[in-house]
Write a structure and sequence with these properties.
The protein has about 260 residues and is mainly α. The protein is about 55% helix and about 0% strand. A hairpin with a 2-residue loop joins strand 1 (about 55) and strand 2. The protein is globular and about 85 Å long.
Length: about 260
């Protein structure tokens, strides 16, 4: 039987050139707007150095609380957020999911699947300047450490009231939700999945093999929703900071539930 040949149209190189007929640009555009807005807001809050603590609530941008009185008189104002945000930011910047997101949204390299780039080039891997992406596994440790502080702040929202006893306000739920979302994002990370069991060749012969296999299966399920955890936690941390700021400025009331 003679082989049949199929002729497909050749896509010319060039930014945005594609045979796709769907709105492929919506995703990168939304990513650009959301990430830019977050960066602008976080930068503003880091320099504002105010309205980050009220009652038992502490903004996640300023957690753990750091005394920056040593920097008085410096030409550039110093805040606790400036020292803290570098840790979580490095974890997100080197995140496997976020790399794809901001490569497409900011560098358009490529803008989307099967969409032309600005210039053709061979794939060289994340080398030269982008070799910093290989430090993601180490930024994971910093992100895990911050989770302890955030859960401490969430628990303090229940029991840290001056009048004593267990309380639940809207702010308590906001901080607890933030800690939950950031935990989901951090513990669903590909690097964490590798750490708990992805690097094991044989669970039956590995130390604590049965436990590591169980943890690996749990993290693997979380990992399938890593993109959702990434975006929800981004909105969660900004929302928690904004809530604390607005309560401290008396712009909203922190209603008590019990």
């Amino acid at each position: 039987m003679a082989e049949k040949s199929v002729h497909l149209p050749v896509l010319q190189s060039g930014l945005g050139r594609t045979l796709r007929q769907d709105a492929w640009w919506v995703g990168p555009a939304l990513t650009f707007v959301v990430l830019t807005s977050f960066i602008v807001y976080a930068t503003f809050r880091a320099f504002e150095n105010a309205h980050f603590e009220v009652g038992p609530y502490l903004s996640p941008f300023y957690s753990p609380k750091i005394d920056t009185s040593f920097a008085k008189g410096w030409p550039i104002p110093m805040s606790g957020a400036m020292l803290i945000l570098a840790g979580p930011a490095s974890f997100r910047f080197t995140c496997y999911y976020y790399r794809k997101a901001y490569y497409r949204a900011f560098a358009m390299d490529p803008p989307a699947c099967a969409v032309g780039e600005a210039r053709g080039h061979g794939y060289n891997g994340e080398r030269k300047l982008l070799v910093i992406q290989n430090f993601h596994r180490f930024t994971l440790y910093a992100a895990i450490a911050f989770l302890f502080f955030l859960w401490h702040d969430a628990i303090k929202g229940f029991i840290g009231w001056e009048e004593g006893g267990v309380h639940m306000n809207v702010g308590t739920l906001v901080l607890t939700l933030n800690a939950t979302l950031l935990s989901g994002y951090t513990l669903s990370c590909h690097a964490f999945r590798h750490l708990v069991g992805g690097n094991v060749n044989s669970y039956s012969t590995a130390t604590l093999g049965a436990l590591r296999h169980s943890l690996w299966k749990i993290v693997s399920k979380l990992n399938t929703r890593h993109m959702a955890w990434a975006w929800c936690s981004l909105f969660g941390v900004m929302g928690a900071d904004l809530y604390v700021r607005m309560v401290d400025m008396h712009a909203i009331t922190d209603f008590r539930i019990f």
